[in-house]
Every structure is written in C-alpha cells, then in structure tokens.
Amino acid sequence: MQQKLCSRGSGSFLLERNGQACGALPDSVTSCELPFRCPRCGEQQRFRSLASLRAHLEYRHSYRSPDVVSGDFSITGSLPARRGQHGAARPPHVRSLSDSRDSGYLHSYGAVRRLNVSSSPSPPAQSSYCGRETAAASAAVRRRLAGILRAADGTMQRRLAKVSTELARTDTELLCERAHSQHLAQERQQVAERERSLSRQVDVAVMVIAALREQLNASESELERREREVLTIQRFLEAAARQETSGKVRIQRFIENLLGRIALAERLVEYYQAQGERHKVQQHPLVEGRLWLDFRSVLFFLLYVSFLRSAFRPKQSNEEPRISRT
Questions:
Q1: Alpha helices of the chain — where are they, by DSSP H?
Q2: Domain spans of the chain?
C-alpha cells in the first residue's frame, strides 16, 4: 500500500514559496489514510510519498532538531519514543523504509554534531568556523538523504511497476479462468439439458418398444391361432375330399350296378315283348293288369336311372385337378 501511494505521488508534487508541499491532500482524503507523517508536526501533517515529506522537512524544519538527529522518530505514523524507551525496539509493522535505511546516517550526523558541540572552543572566532562546518555537514547530510530518498523512490517505483505487471497478469489470468469457468458452466448446463432430453427420449423409446413388443406378441398369437385354424380347415378339407372320393366311388359302383340291372331289365322287357307277340295267350284280366303295372314301374325306373346317369356323369378332365386340389 505504501509503494502504491508513493508511486502515485512521487512525481506529482510542486513546492510552494511558504515551504509546504503541493502534494498535500485533497479534502476528500483524510490525513489518517496517508502512510507518512512529519516527525515534528505529528498527525497534523501527513504525506502520500517520501518526496513530499522530504520537501516539507527541507522548508519547514531543520535537520539539527534533537528528535530528527537522535533517530527516535518514525515517518509512518508512530510518535517519538520516550526517554526511557530508547533501547526498546518497535514492532515490525511500525518500522518504515526510512527508519531502516536512514537511521545510520542520522546517527552519524548526530554524533558529528555532538562532537562538534563538545569540542567547540569558547572564543567567537571558532564559533563561526564551527557554524560553517555544521552547515556544510548538514548540506552533505541533506544531499545524502536526498540521494537515499531518490534511490528509495526508484526502487519503490520499480517494485510497484513489477507488482502492477504481476497484478495485471493475475487479473488477466483470473478473467480468463472466470470466462473458462463460465464456459464450462454453460457446457455443463447444456450437457445436463441434453442428458435430460435424451433420458426423456429413451423413456419414450422404451415405452414405444414395449408397446410394439406387446403388439408383436399379440400378432404372433393371432398368427398361431390363424395357422391352427388353417390346419384345422385343411384337415377338414382333406377329410371331406377323402369322403367325397369314397362317396363318388360308391355312387359310381352303385350306378354301374344299377345300369347293369337296367340293361338286364331292358333285355327282359324285349324278351317278354317278343314272347308276347308270338304267343298271344289269353290271360286272365288280373294277370294283364299286374303285367301293366310292372311295365309302368319298369318305365319309371328306367327314367329315374337315365336321370341319375345324366346327374352322375363323369366330369371333364379340366375339372379333375380342381377336385384334387380341394
């Protein structure tokens, strides 16, 4: 967070004539949200970058102040330590970049200042020399501190650029992963919908197959029943054909016998007629009436036989295969 805020405000400040930094905060940002504070002003003056704090220290305060020289201050928001707590170490989350890098230079500057103060002679001739030496030392310390701050700003800028690049890459990867996850979710939803539709189709197909199987079983049973009926009818027709054949044979034999008898009766009638013409014997009327009745019965019998002959005449040859097929 300190690096990001420092990168945003490191190159965007201008110095004013009264010694304040132009990078001071807008009204919308509170002072407690800034990472760096002035060790002399306390919480009233906070800055968004080390460069703004450096400009404030150069134009508002002197580096010869006791709290700056002693190194017991923090620019990240902690108050100066008490006199009895110089040896106590601050927590790691309170220590700042300037504390770790600039404490050695500030201690060396404080030691030089104390040495100059302790060894300074009383005459006023040497006090001017000590003042020039102190000014030169303070200028050197300022230059070294400015160089250290510039190096720290450059390092933080590089680190911030690296972190920004990694963050952009991570954001891109997250976006890609999110798009991929959304695509997978859509594909999963499509697969689930297709599975449901296929399951419905399979259920319908199973029902149709079951219905067709029932129809097939019914058709098979009906076909078997029809086959049994056909076999029964065929056996009946065969039996009827055999009976018809045997009946025809019997009728034919009966007709042949009857025709033989008719022929014999005709010969007898002719014989009796011939004998009657030769011998005209006077007979009794009862005998004549009996003979007339016998003659009439024989005529009727002959007519009946001729009718039977015409009715039971043998069929043509083209009708015989039809009878055999039946």
A1: 2-9, 50-60, 66-70, 97-119, 124-278, 285-311, 320-325
A2: 2-83+90-178
